[in-house]
Design a protein that fits this description.
The chain is 44% helix and 21% strand. The chain contains seven helices and eight strands; from the N terminus they run αααααααββββββββ. It is globular. The two termini are 32 Å apart.
């Protein structure tokens, strides 16, 4: 298990190892196995959420094998497998560090160089501005576009799950109290329902790409998840007595 002292840096934010572990948990749908102290911090810290989101985006195309033993989430891991996961985590942290290094270089070096180029650069900007666009106007547009496209993709409806929601495949014995279908939720993610059906119930939380983030079996008609979700569209399924009782959706903005 990750030692508590290595979970946070001297700045009282998550260490790079803890950020990499959080991304591992997202990739492997094991977010509920992370320490509660880590989950609470991420839920309230915008800086750490940003670093996690950026590292997750960098590794978006990287496929994680659920059959491979993870040194934190799985017990009895061999030394060879442990070294493999540690090497991968180091590579992920370096990728995140390179990204922040590039941003720092741009802010600390390129900006200074631009401010020292007085007459020549000023005349070039004037010439470009006559054509209706300036260099300064174009850079933010290119930088912001990928982020907009990334988050826009999180709100695309899932054809498979949307059909289940629209067909209202819910049991007449179950009345959902929270979250209501299509609702926008805040930091507190609470699922609650009532009816004649008795537990156990199986609740699954899915992304808009049909990926299962959480799967829990509960005996009571209520579940509160202490996780922080990135903005997007999410679906959830409720099963009772081995049958699908309800499929709903909600938004995180």
């Amino acid at each position: 298990m990750l030692p508590a002292k290595s979970m946070f840096a001297k700045s009282y934010h998550l260490s790079q190892e803890a950020i990499a572990l959080y991304v591992d948990a997202l990739k492997l749908s094991k977010i509920d196995q992370l320490p509660e102290e880590l989950l609470i911090h991420v839920a309230d810290c915008e800086r750490c959420k940003t670093e996690i989101t950026e590292l997750f985006s960098l590794l978006d195309e990287q496929k994680y094998s659920r059959e491979e033993v993870h040194p934190y989430f799985d017990k009895g891991v061999g030394e060879k497998t442990r070294r493999s996961w540690q090497a991968y985590r180091i590579a992920a942290i370096l990728a995140l560090g390179i990204g922040f290094g590039a941003i720092f270089y741009y802010l600390a070096v390129v900006k200074v160089e631009q401010s020292t180029m007085i007459p020549a650069q000023a005349s070039k900007r004037d010439e470009v501005s006559k054509e209706g666009t300036s260099v300064a106007e174009k850079k933010p547009e290119r930088a912001e576009q990928p982020a907009k496209e990334l988050f826009a993709g999180n709100f695309i409806e899932s054809p498979n799950l949307e059909d289940l929601v629209n067909n209202e495949l819910r049991s007449s014995e179950i009345q959902v109290l929270s979250p209501l279908n299509g609702a926008v939720v805040g930091k507190r993610l609470q699922f609650e329902w009532r009816g004649d059906s008795k537990g156990p119930f199986v609740l699954q939380l899915l992304t808009n790409t049909d990926k299962v983030l959480v799967s829990r079996t509960v005996s009571e008609p209520r579940l509160v998840l202490g996780i922080q979700l990135t903005p997007g569209l999410y679906y959830w399924k409720l099963e009772s007595a081995g049958e699908l009782s309800y499929v709903g959706k909600f938004f995180v903005k």
